[in-house]
Design brief:
- The chain is built from 16 helices and eleven strands.
- Helix content is 43%, strand content 12%.
- The radius of gyration is 23 Å and the shape is globular.
- It is α/β, with parallel strands linked by helices.
- The chain has helices at residues 3-23, 37-40, 53-64, 86-98, 109-126, 142-156, 176-184, 205-217, 240-248, 271-274, 288-291, 306-313, 323-327, 346-381, 404-416, 444-457; strands at residues 136-139, 166-171, 192-195, 221-228, 253-257, 283-286, 299-303, 385-387, 395-400, 423-427, 430-436.
């Protein structure tokens, strides 16, 4: 492909994406294709000869769009958001064009140094502890960040100790990635203890202390606690300061998963809710790709002391040796995560921070928090519904008072309209509808439209 051919194709692609983002609100949010429908539209065999771009682009509308659930729709209220933005898309495009493999500082110094610097910006923007400066790294997801924390915590334990004695702890509301990470780290599922939560679904420090004490009595070795700031089911916020106090009595690594909620710390007024106790944790992560206008995938992991992480993950074959690395004056991010290779993800985050600035990012978060508070107030005022969890940020959880069947029927009815998309969970053994507000272009009008739809169909 010549430069001119690339220009023509890229211009057409950018126009297509821009047109898509302009019209996405008019599309049914949830894809309704049957299993196998997309594959049925594809040829059975790969093309023998290259096809014209016109035919390839035509299949975006014919094949791809019918099978897409529109995460960028302002009426997408399911799971947590997977934000995108023009600034992020452009940054990702340039990253793809550069084609950097940033495994070492020497393989592209800009890839490493921009990442380190932008993540230091985020320490300031989010009001994080100063020990995180210079100790941040971009991962693909919070699942990978949690795995890295598990590996670093595991390998910090005296190697003479039988690993079958190790025990980790998290709340029974924590993300499934904690259990998966334990398994990937070579430990058994039963080596992770799920700790009880309080009436607001936050981990109980007393229950954590009791679980650790019980394991010590049985000659087991506590090595990790994973606290959550913004659980998936309810948005619950574990009391990190109290968790740290319990963990420190036994030199237990504390990792905080703030994948969804961490972005909200750009708003100073929200930091007391989100950042309490972080000066005592060993690692902390959040997903800019959820609520900070940066398209998937982009998770940020900070560690208080990088040495444990690097010690756990560093392998140095001869073909990676180089003068810059051996000088000790540079960061080689290959030692900070599981894969050797890494994309220039920092570029899209850099573009987002520069385009929106702190003021724009705060406005983005604030309008969603205020819209969630408005929606929660409508639920509270309606005799047909119970709000099942606090609405501290942008997640509202509610249930129909007529029971699980009524709640499930309501959710299905909303999704069937194509006008909005909701998901569910179970809390206090009730079927609960989740409303996750956070789309790039979600405004109060969309939230009001959702309430009107819910109210009408209930």
């Amino acid at each position: 492909m010549s430069a001119d051919e690339f220009r023509r194709a890229a211009h057409e692609a950018v126009d297509w994406v821009a047109d898509y983002l302009e019209r996405v609100e008019s599309l049914p949010v949830l894809s309704t294709v049957e299993p196998g429908a997309v594959r049925a539209l594809l040829p059975a065999h790969p093309p023998e000869n290259g096809e014209p771009w016109a035919a390839i682009f035509a299949d975006l509308d014919r094949v791809v769009l019918p099978g897409v659930t529109h995460w960028q729709s302002p009426n997408f209220f399911g799971y947590f958001p997977a934000n995108s933005s023009g600034a992020s898309i452009v940054g990702d495009l340039i990253s793809s064009g550069l084609g950097v493999q940033g495994m070492l500082w020497s393989t592209s110094p800009a890839c490493t140094e921009i990442e380190t610097h932008v993540l230091d910006w985020l320490v300031e923007l989010l009001g994080l502890p100063e020990q995180f400066r210079g100790n941040g790294v971009i991962q693909d997801s919070a699942s990978s960040a949690t795995l890295c924390a598990i590996l670093a915590a595991r390998d910090r334990v005296n190697p003479a100790i039988d690993r079958s004695r190790l025990r980790a702890y998290t709340s029974n509301q924590a993300h499934s990635s904690v259990e998966k990470g334990i398994r990937v780290a070579g430990l058994r599922p039963e080596q992770l203890r799920l700790v009880d939560v309080d009436d607001e679904f936050a981990l109980q420090p007393e229950a954590l202390a009791a679980a650790i004490a019980d394991d010590l009595v049985h000659d087991l070795v506590p090595f990790l606690v994973v606290a959550t700031v913004g659980t998936t089911s309810s948005g619950a916020i574990d009391p990190v300061a109290a968790v740290v106090e319990v963990a420190r009595r036994n030199d237990v690594w504390v990792h905080v998963d703030a994948a969804y909620a961490g972005s909200a710390a750009v708003v100073p007024e929200l930091r007391p809710l989100l950042n309490d106790g972080l000066d005592g944790v060993d690692s902390w992560c959040f997903d800019p790709h959820k609520w900070l206008l940066t398209n998937f995938d982009c998770d940020v992991l900070y560690v208080a002391d990088r040495s444990a992480l690097i010690s756990s993950l560093s392998v140095l074959p001869e073909y990676l040796r180089n003068a810059a690395s051996e000088s000790g004056s540079v960061i080689d991010y290959r030692d900070w995560h599981v894969p050797l290779g890494r994309r220039f993800r920092a570029l899209k985050l850099w573009f987002v921070l520069r385009h929106y600035g702190a003021v724009g990012l705060r406005a983005h978060i604030t309008r969603h928090v205020e819209s969630a508070a408005w929606f929660a107030a409508q639920v509270d005022a309606d005799a047909r519904f119970d709000r099942v969890a606090p609405a501290n940020l942008s997640l509202v959880c509610f249930a129909h008072r007529d029971g699980d069947a009524a709640s499930e029927q309501l959710l299905r009815a909303v999704n069937a309209t194509g006008e909005a998309f909701l998901t569910h969970t179970r809390l206090h053994d009730r079927y609960v509808i989740r409303v996750a507000i956070g789309g790039t272009n979600t405004e109060r009008a969309h939230v009001e439209g959702l309430w009107s739809l819910v109210s009408r169909l209930a």
